[in-house]
Amino acid sequence: MLKINPNPTFSATVQISVPGSEKTIPVKIVFRHRTMKQITAWFKLQEKRDSAEALEELIDSWSGIEDDKGNEIDFSREALSTLLENYQPATNEIIRGYMYELAQSKVKN
């Protein structure tokens, strides 16, 4: 049965590009669901904010991100800012991953 109101969060694996490597690193992100109107408004507001502030609204949690000692780092605005500063393509990769999961068709041909 399809619920008229979706779950408030959903998870997706986002591939993050790493400088100097041909391989990407998978990061599991739990996103907050947004309606069509909410995501349209989010895109309009994003132009006026830094990427970490904007993405913080969409991200609930993550796994697969470590510090220099190999300890998993919990999601926070500070950690997100550091990630986006160090991995410049990550902003667009996270947004693409979010939109793909939100809008893709799950039907197989």
Protein architecture, described:
- With 109 residues, the chain is α+β, with helices and mostly antiparallel strands.
- It contains 4 helices and 3 strands, in the order E-E-H-H-E-H-H.
- It has one domain (9-101).
- Helices cover 38% and strands 21% of the residues.
- Strands 1-2-3 form a 3-stranded antiparallel sheet, covered by helices on one side.
- The longest helix has 14 residues, at 90-103.
- The two termini are 22 Å apart.
- The mean pLDDT is 93.
Broad structural category: alpha+beta
Contiguous low-pLDDT stretches (5 residues minimum) are: none
Question: Major sheet: size, sense and barrel closure?
Answer: 3 strands, antiparallel
Nearest-integer average pLDDT: 93
Helix content: 25-40%
Key descriptive features of the protein:
three-stranded antiparallel beta sheet; 109 residues; 4 helices; alpha+beta
What are the SSEs and their pairings?
Blueprint: E1 9-17, E2 24-32, H1 36-46, H2 51-56, E3 59-63, H3 77-86, H4 90-103
Antiparallel strand pairs: 1-2, 2-3
Brief overview:
The chain has helices at 36-46, 51-56, 77-86, 90-103; strands at residues 9-17, 24-32, 59-63.
